[in-house]
Amino acid sequence: MTELNKLALKILENGKGILAADESTGTMTKRLQSVKIVSTAENRILFRETLFSSKEMKECIGGVILYDETIKQNASNGKNISKFISDIGSIAGIKVDTGAKQLAGSPDEKITEGLDGLRERLKEYSKLGAKFTKWRGVYNISDKYPSKLSIDTNAHALARYAALVQECNMVPIVEPEVLMDGDHSADDCFEKTSAVIKKCFEELILHKVDLSGVILKPNMILAGNDSKNQITNEETAKLTVKCLKESVPNEVPGIAFLSGGQTELQATENLNLINKFNDTNFIMSYSYGRALQQSALKHWAKDVKDIQGTQKVFDHRARMCTLAAQGKWSKELENN
Ligand code: 5MM
User: How confident is the model at residue 160 (pLDDT cuts 50, 70, 90)?
Assistant: First the structure.
């Protein structure tokens, strides 16, 4: 067992998942403005520290993905944020891509940037305490998309990223996100997500990435938001497991889903069903942003001094997701 494999397993052990708190300043500003909070560096760290110091962090959250600004900030007790997180018993990670930009040659699609200077930035993040990293490729679905160009270029970038990250002894989270936007069917989502994931692994292998030291962060298989033909949660779970079983090499230790705009409840229920149907060796857990933070953010925005109340809301979400990652969640537990 390699050190990277041990680390990947540790992040996802015992139903633990990942808190994706890596919103770039632009995204975080949108989130804060939606609840009428001014987006200052102080407010951003205040909300995040409120979550990071919650009770369930220790037992439910194996890793926290940070953004460049956050990993350079201190908690209110003066500790560097990575140290603050590791003292709680979780592990700090860092988003290292610099965002999805217009793809030359196919301007309606995106290519994720950030490879230039990455080796040096990784060394800096490692010194700041990061043990794992994240890079997100984004794909949209329509009749002609994702194009071969988008699938190939994003897979290439993800593989170059992952190879550099492992060279720096950190675990790369590989996140190919096929978006929910549109009126496509679940079958389209299945077919296109499968093609995207297969190409990612083809490139990861070509770039000699140790697959046992990688965490995959995919979307679940869902019909598009605007589709009239929505599928049941059971169907989502079965199709998601089938897609991953067919597309992900066995060496990969763990899969941590993104929530992608699902409600907190839907993301939890689907993860629970996925684990009930999971007949693979992969750990199937979560790496949620919105599905872990939404309710807590709304609560906090009503009274930013109500730290305990906000933490209670977050703790419940984290506990429910961890139960779902073990197939032990139920509506009764959710409502108690
Ligand atoms: C938390 O949001 C992350 C990125 O934000 P930017 O677009 O500002 O870079 C995002 O990558 C996130 O980690 C994943 O999409 C999962 O988040 P959700 O909310 O979909 O679970």
Answer: very high
Mean pLDDT computed over 199-223: 98
Question: How does DSSP assign 45-75, residue by residue?
Answer: HHHHHHHHTSTTHHHHEEEEEE-HHHHTSB-
Residue 74: closest CA among 17, 18, 129, 135: 129
Contact residues of ligand 1, CB 6 A cut-off: 20, 22-24, 27, 136, 177, 258-260, 288-291
Q: What is the pTM of this model?
A: 0.98
- Mean pLDDT for the stretch of residues 11-25: 98
pLDDT band at 1; cut points 50, 70, 90: confident
For residue 71, the tally of other CB atoms under 10 A from its CB is 23
Listed in order, strand segments (DSSP E) in the chain are 17-20, 61-66, 91-95, 100-103, 106-112, 132-139, 171-178, 215-216, 254-257, 283-288
For 46-62, the pLDDT digits (tens) are 999 999 999 999 999 99
Question: Which residue is closest in CA terms to ligand 1's atom 17?
Answer: 289
Fold of the 3-335 domain:
TIM Barrel (3.20.20)
How much is the mean pLDDT over the chain? 98
Given the residues 131, 199, 217, 312, the one annotated as active site? 217
**DSSP state for residue 213 in the 8-state scheme:** G
Burial 177-211 (b: 16+ CB within 10 A, else e): bbbbebebbbebbbebbbbbbbbbbebbeebebbb
> So where are the chain's domains?
3-335
- Note if 217 is an active site residue: yes
